[in-house]
Amino acid sequence: MSEAAEAEVLDIPQVYTHHVFCCFTQRPPMHPRGSCGANGAQPLWERLGKKLEASGRRDIAMTSSGCLSFCQAGPIMVVYPQGIWYTPKTPEDIDEIVTSHLLGGKPVERLIIVPRI
Questions:
Q1: What is the spatial distance between Cα 100 and Cα 77, in angstroms, rounded to a whole number?
Q2: What secondary structure, in 3-state letters, does the chain show?
Q3: What is d(CA 40, CA 57) in angstroms, rounded to the nearest whole number?
Q4: pLDDT in tens, 73-105
Q5: What strands, in cross-sheet order, belong to the sheet with 84-86?
Q6: Could you tell me the end-to-end alpha-carbon distance of the chain, in angstroms, rounded to an integer?
Q7: What SUPFAM superfamilies does the annotation carry (predicted)?
Q8: Sequence-distant (≥ 6) Cβ neighbours of residue 54 within 8 angstroms
Q9: The pTM is what?
Q10: Percent of the chain scoring above 70 in pLDDT
């Protein structure tokens, strides 16, 4: 079977225009590093997943991740291939990221965090 035929059988898109990684780390209360889970990530990521599914866009993927290392700034998500890091805090932030960036191609500047390297 050819590679293209195999991909079609497996229903795998060839390329994602955006791949979003969302931190699902949950540390114990009062942990010195904090965590995205403790900062309310779960309902935001659930909303993001539902919005992406409702969009019908198979070229945008969302993957749960472990710690992305910016714990106290969380919830944290990063969008590739651009490498744009976001800190959404509300359901409306998620809606704006989906509409403006993931569907419209325009990053949401007010929600971008630039990690220090």
A1: 15
A2: CCHHHHHHHHCCCCCCCEEEEEECCCCCCCCCCCCCCCCCHHHHHHHHHHHHHHHCCCCEEEEEECCCCCHHHCCCEEEECCCEEECCCCHHHHHHHHHHHHHCCCCCHHHECCCCC
A3: 26
A4: 889 999 999 999 999 999 999 999 999 999 999
A5: 60-65, 18-23, 77-80, 84-86
A6: 45
A7: Thioredoxin-like
A8: none
A9: 0.83
A10: 85
CA distance linking residue 112 with residue 80, whole number of Å: 13
Residue range 28-77, pLDDT digits in tens: 888 888 888 888 999 999 999 999 999 999 999 999 999 888 887 889 99
pLDDT, tens digit, 9 for 90 and up, residues 31-40: 888 888 888 9
Cα–Cα distance between 64 and 36 in angstroms, integer?
12
